[in-house]
Design brief:
This protein is of the alpha/beta class. Helix content is 39%, strand content 20%.
């Protein structure tokens, strides 16, 4: 049976310190509930003394969730601890997280103090916090650069004072994995009473090693990790929750696991990214757009034969439907054949060879090849041109301070039809107008607008996934007018779905 590793999520405290990522109380509650559903053990909800907003957020989150422990950050200052205790008053499970710097840089330069005074302040803070809560966590700030013997002295003192968790932060992201792991091991071997508390990691990513350092700490005895969704946080960020969770799931031989429901990782990642206006880089491990995308022909062929050839994680385990086989100039026949199969197109070998040669020519000109490009290539080769039943002939939008209204003229089977509709925005109004003409129930399940370059006159590329029952297709378009591009992408998808706009005859 695996040993339990506790997940301490600080997205709403350390993660929110990123410039431009501040959330209001309602948004923080939404994230907190998502973290609770994910199975997080501890939610660090804020730094109550820092502002009335943070105080209120900690209090409201305490009321909104029940399973996780709610934690509030303080300095080793009595007033900080008083305010934190007040903010946590309504929490079902509460923790005060207090601490002080322990590295030479912090002791002498930042705090203008001495090692003996630091130990005294650390012990006093823990004892004061214990008056309010049983669960007290102490952080030894900048432990990554601290002298190991002095760090052990501090840790031993705060455990004797009543700390239930001791946080060993690599605050500046300075450590190498072997250094950080050795620090945890040293504490496990040299601190009297260390087993009366849980050692916790808190690693920053300044040198890109936050996850590696965290795992090294866990391997050497830490049983709590302090992490954030998408690895957001001060400067280069924190250890990524999703990376630690999936690394342990992949390396079961370590005998350590968490209580996280990994199938919720992708959805929580997207929620945090959206609310904080902080895009996730495409190649971000686990939750990035390209984390399960394959464009190399060799890789695509291997994945299509057996996912395990190039994937150590099943995309479904992190909440994705499937891997992405991206068609580019590096794709081979296997990937092309796979994509054509998904489109319901069966070709003889000589036809596939001919389409593949044309595909390579097109792929050299375009960054990626779309489904409608493939349909055109197939039609060009087999003599079956793609039939577009719907054509957008006219689009007029009224928007601004009035109710958004759209008028469209769509050519359906050679005849022009007109419709007008309102919506909660210009795109929604236009889509509603077109839906009123096509007689079939369709649902937009994915909608992405991307700038091609920069500037207000930029070209917007729109990607839209539209489903008709279980049949789904991706529509694309690009234009300087993003509303027009969005409507054209919707029509593009409808044509790929084979929507004719004609009323279906009913059998009586």
């Amino acid at each position: 049976m695996s040993e339990r590793l506790f997940i301490f999520d600080t997205t709403l405290r350390d993660g929110e310190q990123v410039p431009g990522c501040q959330l209001n109380t309602i948004e923080k509650i939404e994230v907190a509930r998502a973290l609770e559903a994910l199975g997080v053990d501890v939610i660090e909800a804020g730094f109550p003394v820092s502002s009335p907003g943070d105080f209120n957020s900690v209090r409201e989150i305490s009321k909104a969730v029940s399973a996780p422990t709610i934690c509030a950050l303080t300095r080793a200052v009595e007033r900080d601890i008083d305010v934190a205790a007040d903010a946590l008053a309504l929490a079902k499970h509460k923790r005060i997280h207090t601490g002080i710097g322990v590295s030479p840089e912090h002791i002498y330069s930042k705090l203008k103090s001495t090692p003996d005074a630091i130990v005294e302040r650390a012990v006093a803070a823990v004892k004061y916090a214990k008056k309010y809560v049983e669960d007290v966590e102490f952080y030894a700030e900048d432990a990554g650069r601290a002298d190991e013997a002095f760090l052990a002295r501090v840790v031993e003192a705060v455990i004797k004072a009543g700390a239930t968790v001791v946080n060993i932060p690599d605050t500046t992201g300075y450590c190498l994995p072997e250094q950080y792991g050795a620090k945890i091991k040293y504490l496990m071997e040299h601190v009297d009473g260390v087993h009366k508390a849980i050692l916790s990691t808190h690693c920053h990513n300044d040198l890109g090693m936050a996850t590696a350092n965290t795992l090294s700490g866990v391997i050497n005895g830490a049983r709590q990790v302090e992490v954030t969704i998408n690895g957001i946080g001060e400067r280069a960020g924190n250890t990524s929750l999703e990376e630690v969770v999936m690394a342990l799931r992949c390396h079961k031989h370590l005998g350590i696991d968490t209580g996280i429901n990994s199938k919720g990782l992708t959805s929580v990642s997207r929620l945090v990214s959206s609310l904080m206006n902080m895009p996730v880089q495409a190649n971000k491990a686990i939750v990035g757009r390209n984390a399960f995308a394959h464009s190399s022909g060799i890789h695509q062929d291997g994945v299509l034969k057996d996912r395990g050839n190039y994937e150590i994680i099943d995309p479904k385990d992190v909440g994705l439907d499937e891997s992405v086989i991206a068609l580019t100039a590096r794709s081979g026949r296997a990937a092309l054949h796979h994509r054509l199969d998904l489109l319901g197109i069966k070709l003889e070998q000589h036809e596939l060879d001919e389409v593949y040669e044309k595909f390579l020519v097109l792929a050299d000109k375009k960054k990626d090849v779309r489904d409608d490009d493939l349909l055109y290539l197939v039609g060009d080769t087999t003599g079956e041109k793609v039939q577009k039943h719907l054509k957008l002939k006219y689009l007029q939008i009224l928007s601004g301070t009035l109710v958004p209204t759209a008028t469209v003229i769509v050519e359906i089977g050679g005849m022009e039809r007109t419709a007008t509709s309102t919506g909660n925005g210009p795109i929604d109004a236009a889509v509603r107008a077109i839906k009123s003409l096509i007689q079939e129930k369709v649902l937009i399940t994915e909608f992405l607008i991307q700038a091609m370059n920069r500037g207000s006159d930029d070209v917007g590329r729109v990607h839209m996934r539209v489903c008709n029952g279980e049949n789904c297709m991706h529509g694309f378009s690009a234009h300087t007018d993003t509303v027009r591009a969005s409507v054209e992408a919707f029509v593009d998808a409808l044509n790929l779905l084979g929507v004719t706009g004609k009323k279906k005859s009913s059998n009586k």
